Amino acid sequence: MRFAVPGDINTRSGGYAYDRAILACAPDLGLLPLPGGFPFPGPSELETTRRVLLAAQGPVLVDGLAYGVLPPELIEARRGPTLSLCHHPLALETGLSEAQARALRISERRALALAAHVIATSETTARDLVANYDVEPARITVAAPGLPRAEAAPRRGSPPVILCLGAMIPRKGHDVLLRALARLQGLSWSALIAGPAPDAGWARRIGALSTRLGLDARVRFMGAQDQPGVEALYAGADIFCLPSRHEGYGMVFAEAMMRGLPVVAARAGAVPEVLPADAGLLAPPGDDAALAEFLALLIDTPEVAQRMGRCGRAHALTLPDWPDTARRVMDCLRAAA
Q1: When you count CB atoms within 10 A of the terminal residue's CB, does the N or C end of the chain come out lower?
Q2: DSSP letter at 49?
């Protein structure tokens, strides 16, 4: 049994972290590397992918970044069952043109029709696949990301530290966060924004926006972080905020809750599924005024922030760890064999 993953498996993103964790917890599942370039591969990348998948025998699970654009004839030609891991539908990525989104929806719908089984990372994504991609519920298994146990953050920042952790891409809503912070100039706070920058142009735009809004003295951009760096950021934070425009799950929200951090986010995709109402506050997607109002509430009323942090941690401690998630994935592969 193999797990086909496009690009660099060590890429720092929630989707790749999920893939790495499954491989680490499932010794019977081997990595099948695919070329990069997905979801817009060139001819040579598609040809390499074709050769790799046709040579693989037995069940192969393909990460959705690649699966959604696989040619139907390739899936049909494989000598074993092909399964899809869908983090979120490809067409929901922010920043696509209408033509790109339409093409991805058509391609992914065709590919999913041929999947032996589909693994979704959230109930929200599973419902989306049923409603908009014609996947029968019986062909879907939800395997939510695991959540390793961790110590709660002390939350003693003075001023309170707002942490934003996520890749520098338009979907994550860093622009919304900065506009919200610009509304809070009269309050005491500092902010740390960390994460890789796969979209260098977007990262430059966000840096320029911070300067234009007069935030450079209070907002620090920390760049990509290794795991010890991420742990240090969580340990030094008081509030977590990531106003994503869509999330297929949102692992960082669960991680923030495990650290006892109150969360401010957007009511988008699977975020309401991950974040209980008593653990955080959800603004409409793209609404910087509402986001600022919720951040101000947590800054001005520490008792509310503390209560939400406690509730979030209590919920996080009930969530599965990665070995549980890996077992669900492996059960699907064995059933398809």
Answers
A1: C
A2: H
Nearest to 168 by CA among 100, 94, 240: 94
- CA–CA gap between residue 214 and residue 219 (Å, rounded): 10
- Domain layout of the chain by residue ranges: 2-146+320-336, 161-316
Residue where the block lists tokens 């603004």: 283
Do 15 and 86 meet the contact criterion of CB atoms below 8 Å apart?
no
- Cα dihedral 222, 22, 326, 124, rounded to 10, equals 50
161-316: same fold as 2-146+320-336? yes
Q: Which amino acid is at 210?
A: S
- CA angle, residues 19, 25, 28, in degrees to nearest 5: 95
- Fold of the 161-316 domain: Rossmann fold (3.40.50)
Q: Is the model's pTM score more than 0.85?
A: yes
Tokens for 103, please give them: 């093409």
pLDDT for position 95: 87
**Average pLDDT, integer, range 162-190:** 97
pLDDT digits (tens, 9 = 90+) for 3-42: 999 999 999 888 999 999 999 999 999 999 999 999 999 9
Locate the DSSP E strands across 55-189.
Answer: 60-63, 82-86, 117-120, 140-142, 161-165
Distance separating alpha carbons of residues 129 and 135, to the nearest angstrom: 6
Which tens digit of pLDDT belongs to each residue from 119-142? 999 999 999 999 999 999 999 999
pLDDT band at 258 (very low <50, low <70, confident <90, very high): very high
Say which CATH superfamily domain 2-146+320-336 falls into.
Answer: Glycogen Phosphorylase B; (3.40.50.2000)
Read off the tokens for 167. 């890749």
The first and second tokens of residue 8, run together, are 């660099």
Q: What pLDDT does 12 receive?
A: 87
Among 205, 207, 241, CA closest to 223 = 207
C-alpha–C-alpha distance, residues 166 and 180, integer Å: 17
**Do residues 140 and 210 touch, judged by C-beta distance below 8 A?**
no
Task: Please provide the DSSP assignment of 218-267 as one string.
Answer: TEEEEE---HHHHHHHHHT-SEEEE--S--SS-HHHHHHHHTT--EEEES
